[in-house]
Amino acid sequence: MELFFNPFDNLLCILLGISFTVWFTLLLVFIIVPAIFGVSFGIRRLYMKTLLKVFEWATLRIERGAKEKNHHLYKPYSNGKVYLDSAPEFEMSDIFYFARRGVESIMDDEVTKRFSAEELESWNLLTRSNYNFHYISLRLTVLWGLGLLIRYGFLLPLRVTLAFTGVGLLVFLTSVIGLLPNGRMKNFLSEKVHLMCYRICVRALTAIITYHDSENKPKNGGLCVANHTSPIDVIILASDGCYAMVGQIHGGLMGVIQKSMVKACPHIWFERSEVKDRHLVAKRLSDHVEDKSKLPILIFPEGTCINNTSVMMFKKGSFEIGATVYPVAIKYDPRFGDAFWNSSKFGMVNYLLRMMSSWAIVCSVWYLPPMSREEGEDAVQFANRVKAAIARQGGLVDLLWDGGLKRAKVKDTFKEEQQKLYSKMLHNQSLN
Amino acid sequence: MGSRASTLLREEEIEEIKKETGFSHSQITRLYSRFTSLDKGENGTLSREDFQRIPELAINPLGDRIINAFFPEGEDQVNFRGFMRTLAHFRPIEDNEKNKNSSASEPLNSRTNKLLFAFRLYDLDRDDKISRDELLQVLEKVDVEQKMSIRFLH
Predict the structure, then answer these.
(1) What are the residue boundaries of the EF-hand domain, all occurrences included (chain B) (predicted)?
(2) Looking at the domain assignment, is residue A258 inside a domain?
(3) Which residue among A98, A107, A398 sits closest to B62, beta carbon to beta carbon?
(4) Does B142 touch chain A if contact means CB atoms closer than 8 Å?
(5) Are B23 and A82 in contact (CB < 8 Å)?
(6) Residue A361, SS3?
(7) Is there a smaller number of Cβ atoms within 10 Å at the N or the C end of chain B?
(8) For A303-330, what is the mean pLDDT?
């Protein structure tokens, strides 16, 4: 027996014990307690400023290195434009116009580029977002290596711990609150619990969020509408206010979270089969908004994740129910980490790991003044008006294209309509 | 390396494409990035479906014909070289090129080659002649008024 006992083992155990305790105390004091009370030490903003300075240095270094070696740097938005000839003026030249437009859209079009991550001009020390990364200087590589170590060795475990804490607390506490009778106490507690857990999740992602115009925050009986970039949008909005969520019931961990959340306050979850039934969806939504004691509904009318450079077509369903709409614009700062979820490329777990191993998620949230449907405006026009306001505030491109084009082709009916228009014009021309 | 381009373009290839098409280094890398983002199957070639996924091309009346122009006779896949060769037709003619002697074969973006490209858009059965039917077929879908804008989006 004596052989298995080693004085070093004892020492090791003691050291491990101490470091765990220190770790958890720090975690508690600096992260969880502020999250519970909604205060902030400002550590994250300091971190952000430091990171920005490092990135600037890194970008300058790359540019200098490239100039020395006489390489051309890949810059996504400059120099690379291929200018095209203008069409000469003779009769059969009409074909030139359309041929040119067609080839222009092959080279770069407004729609498909919204479904892949935005390209950056500067480098943020993540290999996944840089084309020019080859060996430039020792210092840069060391910096990159150090960054890798910090992100995966320190930040990632920290964040994962926090994430588990946040989610675990959410499930546990909402189930406990669900046992209380309905009433003001329950609503009050549920609000506090939701906010606290979302704030922990926000810290789990090191999200540095700036809220603007909080006087326009959505009120009960209203509909909160925002542009969609990733599932994190929900956490960002819900850590500043209480919303009723809408969505499909999933299985697994998501399902557990959803079921326990709905015990504490009324969210709107649909079974898979009910999602297709548009009338049922509309009815449940309008029932919810009519009850003024219920929380505002959070909805993403684009229906899919867009890469945060533009806002795509809003589905008119939510704009038909006649509630006041509170638009919210969310704009992520891409320098710190790309928040866009390309669901055809990455699954949810992969995506969350990428998020948690980026430097930070920096974003701005603007609460826009409420809008209602005006006289003589139909749902589509109203939806477009809201969309334009959100795009304008967030500095995003306002597109009429449907986000569904991520997966589906342009509808044939749409194509045929365009062609019908042309042949009608031609017919009129030939009659004259 | 990056999750986007699975096979980065090698320097020799860039040089070859430069010689053949006249595009600059940065233009070639930019177009290569575009090529890989269109290539959903990630096999280094584009199929017709990859082109048809571009909504603005899908509503272009000449969309199908332009797509056809990329694919050589009878083939269903186009690689990056072929892609660049076709795009090169649309490169503007620079002044210093006009005076070059035609010791080498004519550059892809010469006036003649541009006209040849347009001719092939009319010539559906590729018999090097435009028949009356082919002409009428094109005019059916094309509006003679150039002012009609496809991009109704800003």
Answers:
(1) 26-61, 110-145
(2) yes
(3) A98
(4) yes
(5) yes
(6) strand
(7) C
(8) 85
Number of folded domains that form chain A: 1
By DSSP bridging, strand A297-299 and strand A244-248 are parallel
In a domain, A126, yes or no: no
Nearest CA in chain A to B151: A101
Is the model more confident about A183 or about A404?
A: A183
Closest listed residue to residue A419, CA positions, set B70, B120, B148, B121: B148
Asked if the ipTM is above 0.90, the reply is: no
User: Which pLDDT band, with edges at 50, 70 and 90, does A91 fall under?
Assistant: very low
Structural domain of A219:
138-401
Domains and CATH numbers, chain B: 11-91+107-148 (1.10.238.10)
Q: What is the DSSP letter of B14?
A: H
What mean pLDDT comes out for the span A238-243?
Answer: 88
* Residue whose pair of structure tokens reads 């405006």 in the numeric block: A377
Beta bridge partners of A327: A225
Residue A133 lies in a domain: no
B121 contacts in A (CB within 8 Å)? Answer: 95, 99
Q: What is the pLDDT of residue A330?
A: 92
Q: Are strands A297-299 and A223-226 parallel, antiparallel or unpaired?
A: parallel
